[in-house]
């Protein structure tokens, strides 16, 4: 039996073949192993974009032995869930706040403490310090997971439906914070009522009046659209915050040393690229919020700092005085 092929079909096939020769065939090849990177941020944010870049870069540098599949916006669970997933092997890489990592190794949380850093340069000195490497080593011993580096998250500010210009303005304020003790230190110092709510539920909580306020960097306030349901953005700058990039122990154990070192290099480069993007975005956003109709309040941070710093080595401290002094000396 013979099959008759039309002239039109032959022509169409020839055009496709010529196109592939000219421009290259699409890369359909799947890496031998995909690592799962989970986070709670939106696909529009630099954290996600640089995680995607890391996956593509890892595939290139390992000759397609590994790539990374990124799961954004809490699609594999809330922040507590993905931290637990590292040890279980259900996720391989995560972004997470330092206070969440501090649940496994207390001193790891020190970088997420209100008014711990004087400025960005102080934070960067900590990221690149032997002290951070010591923290990461202690975290590995306690959790079995590998803290690779820090990505700048921005200075955290309070949003509300009234101006917050002094600690007195926060008395009794019901403010949403992440479910980790150090995020409650600043509200407690100022006399507010810290209320833990999952990140994915914050917008609705603000919209419905379940809480009066929340606190996050300007980039997150924009990405999560909190400015739509809060009229005032108060530049308290109470935490110079960052995200840890962590590789789970089971994921590390399945990789040979050479491929793991490539992964580490890629993750550090992604963190540096993302940090630069966050800094650039942060610098322009106060004007952007004003254009949206929000009131951006520049505040004197000294009174907020004064009510918070006495708590640094109080009952919520999970680090030693020596570690605290070493960080302050950087």
Automatic annotation (TrEMBL):
Superkingdom: Bacteria
Family annotation (PANTHER family): PTHR33376, SIALIC ACID-BINDING PERIPLASMIC PROTEIN SIAP (PTHR33376:SF4)
Keyword field: Signal
UniProt protein name: Sialic acid TRAP transporter substrate-binding protein SiaP
InterPro entries assigned to the protein according to its UniProt record, in alphabetical order: DctP_fam, TAT_signal, TRAP_DctP_sf
Extent of the signal sequence: 1-29
UniProt xrefs under SUPFAM superfamilies: Periplasmic binding protein-like II
Gene3D superfamilies reported in the protein's UniProt record: Bacterial extracellular solute-binding protein, family 7
């Amino acid at each position: 039996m013979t099959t008759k092929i039309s002239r039109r079909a032959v022509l169409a096939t020839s055009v496709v073949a010529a196109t592939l020769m000219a421009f290259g065939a699409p890369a359909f090849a799947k890496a031998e192993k995909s690592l799962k990177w989970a986070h709670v941020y939106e696909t529009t944010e630099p954290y996600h974009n640089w995680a995607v870049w890391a996956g593509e870069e890892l595939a290139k540098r390992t000759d397609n032995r590994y790539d990374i599949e990124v799961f954004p916006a809490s699609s594999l669970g809330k922040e507590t869930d993905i931290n637990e997933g590292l040890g279980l092997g259900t996720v391989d890489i995560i972004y997470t706040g330092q206070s969440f990592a501090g649940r496994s190794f207390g001193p790891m949380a020190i970088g997420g403490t209100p008014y711990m850093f004087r400025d960005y340069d102080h934070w960067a000195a900590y990221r690149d310090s032997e002290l951070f490497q010591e923290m990461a080593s202690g975290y590995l011993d306690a959790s079995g997971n590998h803290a690779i580096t820090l990505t700048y998250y921005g200075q955290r500010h309070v949003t509300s439906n009234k101006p917050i210009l002094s600690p007195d303005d926060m008395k009794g304020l019901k403010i949403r914070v992440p479910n980790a003790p150090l995020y409650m230190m600043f509200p407690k110092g100022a006399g507010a009522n810290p209320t833990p709510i999952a990140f994915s539920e914050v917008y609705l909580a603000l919209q419905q009046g379940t809480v009066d306020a929340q606190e996050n960097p300007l980039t997150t306030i924009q990405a999560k659209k909190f400015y739509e349901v809060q009229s005032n953005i108060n530049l308290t700058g109470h935490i110079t915050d960052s995200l840890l990039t962590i590789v789970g122990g089971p994921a590390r154990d399945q990789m040979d040393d050479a491929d793991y070192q490539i992964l580490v290099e890629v993750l550090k480069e992604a963190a540096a690229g993302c940090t630069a993007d966050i800094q650039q975005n942060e610098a322009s956003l106060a004007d952007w919020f004003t254009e949206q109709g929000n009131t951006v309040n520049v505040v004197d941070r000294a009174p907020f700092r004064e009510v918070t710093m006495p708590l640094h080595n109080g009952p919520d401290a999970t680090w030693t005085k020596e570690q605290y002094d070493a960080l302050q000396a950087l």
